[in-house]
Amino acid sequence: MDSEDDMHDANDLESLDDDFYSGETGMGSDDGDGDYEFGNNASDDSDDGNLNRQQENYTVLSEDDIRQRQEEDITRISTVLSIERDHACILLRHYKWDVDKVHEAWFANEESVRQTVGLYENPVARTFSRELLCGICFERHPCDRMCAASCGHFFCYSCWRGYVSTSINDGPGCLMLRCPDPPCGAIIGQNMINLLASNEDKEKYSRYILRSYIEDNITSKWCPAPGCEYAVDFVMGSVNFDVSCNCSHNFCWNCTEEAHRPVDCTMVAKWILKNSAESENMNWILANSKPCPKCKRPIEKNQGCMHITCTPPCKFEFCWLCLGAWTDHGERTGGFYACNRYETAKQEGEYDEAERRREMAKNSLERYTHYYERWATNQSSRQKALQDLQNMQNVQLDKLSDTQSQPESQMKFITEAWLQIVECRRVLKWTYAYGYYLPENEHGKRQFFEYLQGEAESGLERLHQCAEKELQTFIDSSGPSKDFNDFRTKLAGLTSVTRNYFENLVRALETGLNDVGESGNQPTCSRSSSIKSGKGKNGKTRTIGGTTSRSLDDGNHSHWSCESCTFANTKSSMVCQVCHRRR
Amino acid sequence: MANSNLPRRIIKETQRLLSEPAPGISASPSEDNMRYFNVMVLGPTQSPYEGGVFKLELFLPEEYPMAAPKVRFLTKIYHPNIDKLGRICLDILKDKWSPALQIRTVLLSIQALLSAPNPDDPLSENIAKHWKANEVEAVETAKEWTRLYASGA
């Protein structure tokens, strides 16, 4: 296969070398865990504009970051509106932490904002001259032992404390706490809470405010990974929803399922629902039924003899054990309750698992099983790769830098390769959901898709092979090997080529393989060496990995595009070189 | 005894309930538990419950007045916001409770609910459906039930 050659060509390219080394130095200056994130790597700018896009469309926030941003927003509102910070915080909460909305509403109609939010401007003046009746405990108290919100409805401290503590312990609703006087809507802010609540309750309340900054804000969400305390702030309107949290969990910001490019959220939801509903059904059907040998409908045998008659319209009569026609059965084959033919065949090993699978192949669920199995396999391969990556980082790299007498900082390319493998498994997994939902009748697209998927798989295998098997020889070797630098170049090259291929694959699938038209003169896929076109400094090419490039410019002059598989054939050939279909 | 350390507020509320009862409402504490009240509410005039005497029970939980009182109809009643166990769907008994509300205000609200049933926020799905589909007929049933179960006999 020529794709093979292309892949290996990559290793000889200087440009890749450059990429690799510039990446290396950049990475050294990067601090700590930042290294293990996709797309967040500032040093990778030589690689692709795509990465920069990912970098800009979200920010991972730690608790400190959140507090800092929150403080900044409060300060902004407080300064611009010339109001207390406490009031600024109330306003921001009401407008879901949208600074612009607060400005807009406030300057449009301050009075109405104050009314809706419950921030009254003219509190009743406090008088210390007499006692007041507390509307909760019905006792008279001197005014200095009572307090009120901006509305001036006085209650005694003791009742206030009870009121505030009950509300805080009822949950985040306490952020909207109002004056206890029933028709009054005056809001209770944090200052008043701090005056009245116990330390424990104050702490709870301030956590609710912090949470509100993430949960009410439409641009931010908590990372859904269990135990993770980071939040992700997203630039609204960005096309790519996949984000990578500092806890190394990759998820879709839109639906908070795990990252699923190139498949969109609706499809993921459908697929997950299908898996949860169908896998159960499937398991039951596999365990408890056999398909009718004639019409393939699953049949459950819950009582009676081995002589089965399928329900109309099929009405096929067969033997449950050997699935052969009943007409071949009778007293001499064991009668209604046994089947000699089955027993003999079983002894000859005919009814093994493969046989069963082949039988099932015609079952209506086979198509789904096909995609589901592959989806699930890639899922577990990804888990495995993650473990291997960890093992690599914790144990193997140490060993390797010993045997090869090179500093560990020179081994980053191995981590990079493994991270790429993990990412590729993830993409590959979702391509199976994609394939399942790709309409059967769009033959051109299907064929092209399967081709791309196949290439992706073999590309990944190559990378995996190199990062696992070839690396092992260097780990096991007794002393420094002079081939190690060549190996480094090779693995870094493969990583880069594979990354490009997968990024292009994702983009192609995301646009719905729209370049694959049913008519002949659409942009075509030609077998040119894309590595060569990607040789420039920036590596920006419209290529699908090492083998295929879709060229928009050459149109239909020198090539013709196969109607069936879209392959661009040279004008001279009358038969498609790939699928042998006539022009 | 539980009654000995009864909050001043409850004592005061009880005294006022007994000395100046609200029109059409009576509430008296049980002798062995000052937090448990036997309540009678007269069906409001010009409502399907007119002429009926409705018995309720009202209990002031430990947290009262920070938590709402627990109120329940004992007399059977045909009303979209009251279920067959006598439980009442009323905002001030749930999230809209405020410690500045009182037993008196709660019972007045319940009386108002009898005058103005709200089938859009139902507790009893069947009755609410009936109410929305055929109000005249539902009102007739409510009158019938009032006669049958709340005639005060």
From TrEMBL, chain A:
GO CC terms for this protein? cytoplasm; ubiquitin ligase complex
**Where does the signal peptide begin and end?**
none
Provide a Gene Ontology MF annotation, just one: ubiquitin conjugating enzyme binding
What's the Enzyme Commission number for this chain? 2.3.2.31
Q: Which CDD domains does the UniProt record give?
A: BRcat_RBR_ANKIB1, Rcat_RBR_ARI7-like
Q: Does the keyword Zinc-finger apply?
A: yes
The biological processes this protein is annotated with in GO are: protein ubiquitination; ubiquitin-dependent protein catabolic process
According to its UniProt record, this protein's enzyme class is: transferase
Biased composition range(s): Acidic residues? 1-21
Q: Which UniProt keywords apply?
A: Coiled coil, Metal-binding, Repeat, Transferase, Ubl conjugation pathway, Zinc, Zinc-finger
Domain RanBP2-type, first and last residues per copy: 553-583
Tell me which stretches of the chain form a coiled coil: 344-371
Pfam families referenced in this protein's UniProt entry, alphabetically: IBR, IBR_1, UBA_ARI1
Q: Which family does it belong to?
A: Belongs to the RBR family. Ariadne subfamily.
UniProt xrefs under PANTHER family: RBR FAMILY RING FINGER AND IBR DOMAIN-CONTAINING
Q: What is this protein called?
A: RBR-type E3 ubiquitin transferase
Q: Which organism is it from?
A: Zostera marina
Q: Cite the source lineage.
A: Eukaryota, Viridiplantae, Streptophyta, Embryophyta, Tracheophyta
UniProtKB/TrEMBL annotation, chain B:
User: Taxonomically, which superkingdom?
Assistant: Eukaryota
Active-site positions on this chain: C89 (glycyl thioester intermediate)
Residues annotated as transmembrane: none
Per UniProt, the keywords (alphabetical) are: ATP-binding, Nucleotide-binding, Transferase, Ubl conjugation pathway
- Keyword Repeat present in the record's keywords: the answer is no
Q: Where is the UBC core domain?
A: 5-151
Give the record's family classification: Belongs to the ubiquitin-conjugating enzyme family.
Name of the protein in question:
Putative Ubiquitin-conjugating enzyme E2 N
* Originating organism: Zostera marina
